[in-house]
């Protein structure tokens, strides 16, 4: 009998996502990037949010389709399937593909929320992922969210299971703020 890897995204929703889910407006649309079998889609659908998920695994999107629209797409090799679309919330956990980070942040609608949690530098000392390609560097998630208002941010070690993570809850302003964007200030311009 062939060993089959379990579908990712079948467990309980992330504590971070649950903790900050109150930031979403009522009935806000939710995009779950690298949704796996849809644990976060299920969480938000159960609270009345229309949900969309994307994952490259057809088996995962088949399972996630029970909770909302699930799109099978390889966002690392193919086009971003949500070009020009925005969502009331964008959720990402345990996933990092730097070339898509700008698309992910751009998908947050005015007044919308980004909830992001993934592995960080240091994780190579306790397990996988261990390649730098899949580990955020110090401050990297903050820099990616420079045009959003950060509500909460953590960068550190979590013991159960042992892992290093960065996680953020950030909101896009409904209207552009006066003055130079934070990105320009961070670059010293």
TrEMBL record:
- Keyword Repeat in the entry? The reply is no
Keyword Transferase carried by entry: yes
Protein name as catalogued: SAM-dependent methyltransferase
Highest taxon of source: Bacteria
Q: Which InterPro entries match?
A: Methyltransf_25 (IPR041698), SAM-dependent_MTases_sf (IPR029063)
Alphabetically sorted, this entry's keywords are: Methyltransferase, Transferase
Q: Which Pfam families match?
A: Methyltransf_25
A GO molecular function assigned to this protein is:
methyltransferase activity
The Methyltransferase domain, residue ranges: 30-112
The biological process GO terms on file are: methylation
Q: Where is the signal peptide?
A: none
